[in-house]
Amino acid sequence: MTRSTSRGKRAVVxxxxxxxxxxxxxxxxxxxxGAGAFSxxxxxxxxxxxxxxxxxxxxxxxxxxxxxxQVALNRIERPGATVLLPLPGEIYARNLxxxxxxxxxGRLMAEPCPYRHFCQYSNIYFQGMVEQRxxxxxxxxxxxxxxxxxxxxxxxxxxxxRDKGGVLRYSTPGAPSQDDVAPWNWVGSIxxx
Length: 193
Prior knowledge:
By secondary structure, the chain is an alpha+beta fold. It has helices at residues 3-18, 39-44, 49-66, and strands at residues 21-22, 25-26, 69-72, 75-78, 81-84, 117-121, 130-133, 139-140, 146-152, 160-163, 168-171, 177-183, 187-191.
């Protein structure tokens, strides 16, 4: 192991600890558990130990970046939103606690955007990480590359996107609507309703 790799791992552990978690253990009451807490779930979907660690690293990085509490192997809860990360080797995120998410077919399609939600995907065509927002609040955008979105709120509801200076620059068509290729680099915040 090179010296810079060792420093990089220490930085991740320090950042994770600063967010109230230590990989593999609970750092404080209410903190997110590490990969060990979800080992049964990892085995049930066929992940190897290395894949479970890879996923845990991605979950931890997302919590460090934008906050939240890990509640399942690939799921983070934030105020007003649920975040799902794809499993290693998969392109779509899926809810492993839902019957459809545990099936082989669940790996082959995007997780449906629940009714009354605005879903923001990290990749185009509804691939990658998805943040399912269900509260009418202003959400900071952390994504910078092209992604996609689905507006599945009550019929006719529009989401509004502001640039990094707070200027309203785009309102989505009323629900239901979607965009399979959406640039996130200019978006500072999203107000789903």
